Every structure is written in C-alpha cells, then in structure tokens.
Amino acid sequence: MKKSIPIANPSLELENIDNFYEKFKKEMDSGIYVGGKNVSDLELNLSKFLGVKHVATLNSGTDALILAIDSLGLKKGDEIILPSFTYYATAEAIMRVGATPVFADIDKNSYCTSLKQIENLVTSKTKCIVPVHLYGFDADISSLKKFCINNNIYLIEDTAQAFGSKSKEKKLLGTYGNVNAFSNFPSKTLGGIGDGGFVATNSSSIYKKIIMLRNHGQKKLYEHELLGYNSRMDSLNAFTLNQKLKKFGEIKKTRNKLVNTYKEILDKVDFISFPAINTNHTLLNYFTITLPIGLRTKFQNTLNKEGIMTNIYYKKPLHQQKALKSYGFKKGPMDNTNDYSKRVLSLPLFSYMEEEDMDYLKTKLTNVVRKYEK
After folding, report:
1. Section 110-126 average pLDDT
2. What is the pTM of this model?
C-alpha cells in the first residue's frame, strides 16, 4: 500500500510527550498568552542547555537575526559577510539595518561557508561575519571565531538549523559568537507550534539591549528609549518548547536513527554524495544529498510518486534573488554555491518515525536508487 512520508512531521513529538494535550489545555485555561513564567522558564532552561549567560526569546528566527544585528549597532555603510547558499532571512536581516551584504561561497565538504571562503572578502568596512550552520553542519566556527577576535570583527552565528549540533571541538554551535540567532520554526530540531526564535549571548550589554528592542524599545513600561520591535514569544509556544526540551535527548536519538538509516542506504552509492556525518556531534535539521546535474528533478519526481516528499534548500542562491539585486551587494566567486543549488535535494527527516514508515521509506528509496544506478 502506498504511504505518504512528509518532509517533516513535528506533531509526532507532541504525541510522545506524556499527557501533552491535557497539560496544554491547562495552560490555555490559565489565560496567560504573552510572556509569563513559561517564557522565563524557557529562557533559563535554554541558557543552561547551551551553557551561556543569557537567552532572550523572540517572535521568530528572522527576528533573532534582525535584533542580533541591531544590538551591535551595525548600520548603513558597514559590510557584513554571509553565505549566499542559505535562506533569504539571513540577508533580509542585514538589509533591515541598511548594511551591505557580502556573499561568500561554500565549501564542498560541509554545505557551509568557511574561513577559507571568507578571509579574502574582508575589507576595512567589514564589521561582522554571519556564518550559517546550514542543515546542522559546523560552518568552520572555531577558525572564524579566532579570525574575528584577531581582526576586531563581530561574529553572529545563524544557528536556525543547528540547535543541538556541535563544532569540531564538541562545543555546541550557537555559543561562539558575540550574539547568536536560533529558530524554533516547527520543523527545526527544537521546533515549536508556530513561529519562534531566540538569541543567546554571554554579553550582558547585548542582552539588555535586545530585551529592550523586543518590547518596543522599553526599559520600563511606557518608557521608550529605542526604536524597537514587537517580538515577544507567546506563552503557549514557550510551554511547548519547554516540554520538548525535556525530551530533547530522545528527540535527538530518534532523529539520528533515521540519519543512520540514510547513511546505510546511500553511503556507497556512486552518484549520490553528502558530507561526513558524525551523529555524536552533528544533529541534522535536513538530510541533504547531492545528485548529478540533470538528475535531481527525475529523482525527486520518482520519490514523490512513491509518496516520499522532498524539498530543495535552496534552489536560487541569495546573489541571484531579485530583492538583493535591487538592494545591492558584493560577492566573491560563487562556483560551489551555483553548482550545489542545482544539485541538492533534502529527504524526509523527523523524530519518532514509526517503524512501518521507516521500512517503507527504506524500501522505496533503495528501489529508486537502484533505478538510477543502471
């Protein structure tokens, strides 16, 4: 019988939390929907998990990037280096403050940018570097941190897709930068029940500024000192994230079970490649493979016909986007970015996949691989 395997299924995590819906109804009945104890508890729990001094929850991962950049005082004329091979929000946050995006290429072995790709793009106007830990991989963060310290450049980690992943030094990603941005979009490794995000920092001054920025620039009620935003996480989302954080070890384990299944099937397939994955320290948000030029659409369509949903992250790099062309940017060589945007394909990845569905996925994926090996 044909099944349907979605690209993500965050509802399964809720089903595996004891008495979740009963607890959730109790929270709804409390009448507290913005701020409150759930939010403050989540901020404390996240700071303990990450080992950082401060966490400020926000309305989305995009807001996390915007407020992180704003908190550093970055402005028009400043250059901020980021990869072109990422989601639009990273560049959008830079555009919001009027700064100039400078696009760096990615490495072939990680889907992420690196110091090698970035260092030749640095000028006297470079004020910040924003590496993106795409799909959950380490964007050479240890090297970039040393470089930024030595060159007096701010570092903001875009950790939207990498909550729970670690660096080569086995330190959690999102803990290296001056301030770091996370997303709690439902499909993320720590996903909520709607949009949500947070920033993590060890700087008290940055934290205090973001706390003001997220609430209309207020230091005290009705005392507005800054041009701020309305970017508060709602209480019900914070409650859900707290519940998931308690189960995060299990979420990680069941997610990695599927990753290891993919590795068993695809590791020795000549026409498919992907970076080395050590599930002891890499927690993937998306399992992304690279196919030969011209095969991706056929491979994707064949999987979809079997009920296996896929997606392309990202088909059009940022330096090719209309909004960026209108705004203006700088860039280095984009050979790897242009190549990978034509060849990457992401397969279903989520926690608590049922054994029956995993067996179906293994069988159908194996059959599709064999079809195109011929």
Report:
1. 97
2. 0.96
